[in-house]
Amino acid sequence: MTQQSHTRSCIVCGTVLDGPIGSLMRMAGIRRSPQNPNVCNRCSTHIQEGRIVELTIFFADLVGFTAMTNELGSEKAFEIIDAVFKNASEILIRHDAFVDKFIGDAVMAMFNIPVRRNDHVFQAVSAAEDLLKALPRLQEQFDRSLQFRIGIASGHAHVGKIGSKERKDYTAIGEVVNLASRLQTSASPDEIVLNEAAYGAVAKIYPSAKQQSIHVKGFDQPVSVARIGSTPAEARPSERPYAPLRRQISIGSTLLALLGAPCIGAAIIGPMSIALGAGAIFSAALPAMEFLDSPSVQYPLFLFAVIGSIANLFVVWLGYHRRKKSLLLQESLTRYEKIKTWSVASAGILSLLLVGGELLLHHLGHHLFR
């Protein structure tokens, strides 16, 4: 994907990813996600515990790749598959997909997570059509016949991180994933096969799709599917409700990212602000920390603690507000996110109370011992 096709900021949280500010973000560890460069790396993996979500799974398999490898050798076959997958990733990302993995000569992608779209099924089908449309150019480039089998299924799956301590992958687990893979296997070359749920979302746009029931390996009952053949550009439906989700650069999101909170629902935890707010307690307990009780030291620290606490509470409020209003993320918080949010809010409130108590004690002490 060329740099020009990337959005300037994360389409989930608005963090700037390009230009001088983008360079500053990269120094802070915030960069584009390899699964979708239009999303920052923190937003693409912010779900720590996983959750059940509605999504569309996309599988595309390159036809005859094993025979091609035997004929051309591994080096030439690698060059072809690399170009094909780069093109596929470019198209999928353009339709707000999350590229999950490449499996041999196949690619798996997810739609509607982490970027929430009401038209996620249509985006998956449109990406499939665009993938098929791009094949003639690649065929001409490599002087080879290239075809895809594509399976698309919509439903619910558990999405989250799985793996060992050394390596974890963000992926989806569920019947819909297995079904999409099986539908891809049952597709003819240059054909898109959808399950009943997926086709129901786009039936008005593709009324001529061939509907049938087929037996799918691993499923006891026949599965209702719809088959969409390769469609030339001039014959594609005139009704194209595609509207890319793009966010304007948000200065607020940029500042929050530098504070450590680039993603919706995330927030900074400031234990130092609690320590600074309790300067007198530390100085009383530890004589070596007596300098903290000096007004020339304490008041600047108070100011720092108050600013940090307000920043904490503001980030919690902003995360709640955006999650409530946004269509981009799943609404419910995981247990991990709830604990984190309450910890941040508690830290901010406790810090403000400690600072207020310190100031009150100083004020009372000043009047009592005048």
Structural description of this entry:
It is a single chain. This protein has helices spanning 19-27, 41-44, 65-72, 74-94, 120-142, 175-186, 196-202, 251-258, 271-277, 279-285, 295-325, 335-368; strands at 51-62, 98-103, 106-111, 148-163, 168-173, 191-195, 210-214, 223-229. With 370 residues, it is an alpha+beta fold. It folds into 2 domains: 49-235, Nucleotide cyclase, GGDEF domain (Alpha-Beta Plaits); 264-368, no CATH class. Strands 1, 2, 3, 4, 5, 6, 7 and 8 form an 8-stranded mixed beta sheet that branches. A hairpin with an 8-residue loop joins β7 (210-214) and β8. The termini are far apart. The model is unreliable at 232-243, 258-271 and 327-331 (pLDDT under 50).
Quantity of strands, as a count: 8
Beta content comes to: 15-25%
Radius of gyration: 27 Å
Question: Can you give the mean pLDDT?
Answer: 75
Query: What is the CA–CA distance across the termini?
Result: 72 Å
Low-confidence parts, pLDDT < 50 over ≥5 residues? Answer: 232-243, 258-271, 327-331
Map the helices and strands.
Blueprint (H helix, E strand, L loop, with lengths): L18 H9 L13 H4 L6 E12 L2 H8 L1 H21 L3 E6 L2 E6 L8 H23 L5 E16 L4 E6 L1 H12 L4 E5 H7 L7 E5 L8 E7 L21 H8 L12 H7 L1 H7 L9 H31 L9 H34 L2
Parallel strand pairs: 4-6
Antiparallel strand pairs: 1-3, 1-4, 2-3, 4-5, 6-8, 7-8
Helix pairs in contact: 3-4, 4-5, 9-11, 9-12, 11-12
